[in-house]
């Protein structure tokens, strides 16, 4: 089975707190763990993914580095505002390889998912891939 | 081009010149606070530093804490997790230099074991006749703490940009170093 990347499905990253031109937020949804978005200092950090249409999500998988605590919020509106909390998770620290976490969203319906990284294991964190299971 | 962001703690005893120094930097050397008022709490200043010969910049969120003993605890609550440290003492006060190690301990407790680049600043270099702390002594202690040492005079606008510029540079190289590590990671 080949999984489509979120960007191939038309999803977009509409907001990201940090930006390094060489590591733009689009790298989060291109399905490739070699490309990444990197935060450029201080917490919290966040990014918002918009789907083309309301989407039922059973789980998200996040490949990242140095993320300590992640909160996920969602909405079902056309605008990236008025989010409601869905879940949060403490990630384990890894060294030399990526963190890979699957987070259950219990079939939530969403048009936007907001990822808030509240703390990290270092000054900077990176997110390499976010994917969803329907 | 990268725009970095750092939370910079400004600490040191009361009256060593922290606020004067930072206001100098903040306003690019055009203003010196002449009316002395004991800082009462925490002041937040935002300063964007362009790193020379690069397209990178660092936005410094500078947290100026009161040095008064009675206010220290209230201030510490505002420190959060610092990215950078600027520790200031008064070159004409041996005591303010001796207290630097206590400031270091306090700050370290907030760093969650992370490496936080820092500078030690000996201020009031214009009062050379009243100097109580020799540069070599300060330099040596700074080195033992992993801090870069600078001497400044907020009054004479001497060297006031150097400490924050060196902090911004240190943060940029930390970023580059971490980015390199991340580029070489393998999937989990
Ligand atoms: N001679 C001299 N006086 C200074 C200098 N910097 C600050 N001061 C004076 O030292 C006093 C304390 O300064 P302030 O910035 O409020 O200290 P803070 O409590 O550390 O923030 C004030 O009277 C300032 O005018 C300096 O470089 N040289
Ligand atoms: Mg002050």
Automatic annotation (TrEMBL), chain A:
<dbReference type="GO" id="GO:0046872">
    <property type="term" value="F:metal ion binding"/>
</dbReference>
<dbReference type="InterPro" id="IPR033558">
    <property type="entry name" value="IFT25"/>
</dbReference>
<dbReference type="GO" id="GO:0030992">
    <property type="term" value="C:intraciliary transport particle B"/>
</dbReference>
<dbReference type="InterPro" id="IPR000421">
    <property type="entry name" value="FA58C"/>
</dbReference>
<keyword id="KW-0966">Cell projection</keyword>
<keyword id="KW-0479">Metal-binding</keyword>
<keyword id="KW-0106">Calcium</keyword>
<protein>
    <recommendedName>
        <fullName>Intraflagellar transport protein 25 homolog</fullName>
    </recommendedName>
</protein>
<keyword id="KW-0969">Cilium</keyword>
<dbReference type="Pfam" id="PF00754">
    <property type="entry name" value="F5_F8_type_C"/>
</dbReference>
<comment type="similarity">
    <text>Belongs to the IFT25 family.</text>
</comment>
<dbReference type="GO" id="GO:0005813">
    <property type="term" value="C:centrosome"/>
</dbReference>
<dbReference type="InterPro" id="IPR008979">
    <property type="entry name" value="Galactose-bd-like_sf"/>
</dbReference>
<comment type="function">
    <text>Component of the IFT complex B required for sonic hedgehog/SHH signaling. May mediate transport of SHH components: required for the export of SMO and PTCH1 receptors out of the cilium and the accumulation of GLI2 at the ciliary tip in response to activation of the SHH pathway, suggesting it is involved in the dynamic transport of SHH signaling molecules within the cilium. Not required for ciliary assembly. Its role in intraflagellar transport is mainly seen in tissues rich in ciliated cells such as kidney and testis. Essential for male fertility, spermiogenesis and sperm flagella formation.</text>
</comment>
<feature type="domain" description="F5/8 type C">
    <location>
        <begin position="16"/>
        <end position="125"/>
    </location>
</feature>
<comment type="subunit">
    <text>Component of the IFT complex B, at least composed of IFT20, IFT22, IFT25, IFT27, IFT46, IFT52, TRAF3IP1/IFT54, IFT57, IFT74, IFT80, IFT81, and IFT88. Interacts with IFT27. Interacts with IFT88.</text>
</comment>
<dbReference type="GO" id="GO:0042073">
    <property type="term" value="P:intraciliary transport"/>
</dbReference>
<dbReference type="GO" id="GO:0005929">
    <property type="term" value="C:cilium"/>
</dbReference>
From TrEMBL, chain B:
<dbReference type="GO" id="GO:0005525">
    <property type="term" value="F:GTP binding"/>
</dbReference>
<dbReference type="GO" id="GO:1902908">
    <property type="term" value="P:regulation of melanosome transport"/>
</dbReference>
<dbReference type="Pfam" id="PF00071">
    <property type="entry name" value="Ras"/>
</dbReference>
<dbReference type="GO" id="GO:0030990">
    <property type="term" value="C:intraciliary transport particle"/>
</dbReference>
<dbReference type="InterPro" id="IPR027417">
    <property type="entry name" value="P-loop_NTPase"/>
</dbReference>
<keyword id="KW-0969">Cilium</keyword>
<comment type="similarity">
    <text>Belongs to the small GTPase superfamily. Rab family.</text>
</comment>
<dbReference type="InterPro" id="IPR001806">
    <property type="entry name" value="Small_GTPase"/>
</dbReference>
<dbReference type="InterPro" id="IPR050227">
    <property type="entry name" value="Rab"/>
</dbReference>
<keyword id="KW-0966">Cell projection</keyword>
<keyword id="KW-0547">Nucleotide-binding</keyword>
<dbReference type="GO" id="GO:0003924">
    <property type="term" value="F:GTPase activity"/>
</dbReference>
<protein>
    <submittedName>
        <fullName>Intraflagellar transport 27</fullName>
    </submittedName>
</protein>
<keyword id="KW-0282">Flagellum</keyword>
<keyword id="KW-0342">GTP-binding</keyword>
<dbReference type="GO" id="GO:0001822">
    <property type="term" value="P:kidney development"/>
</dbReference>
<dbReference type="GO" id="GO:0031514">
    <property type="term" value="C:motile cilium"/>
</dbReference>
<dbReference type="GO" id="GO:0060271">
    <property type="term" value="P:cilium assembly"/>
</dbReference>
<dbReference type="InterPro" id="IPR005225">
    <property type="entry name" value="Small_GTP-bd"/>
</dbReference>
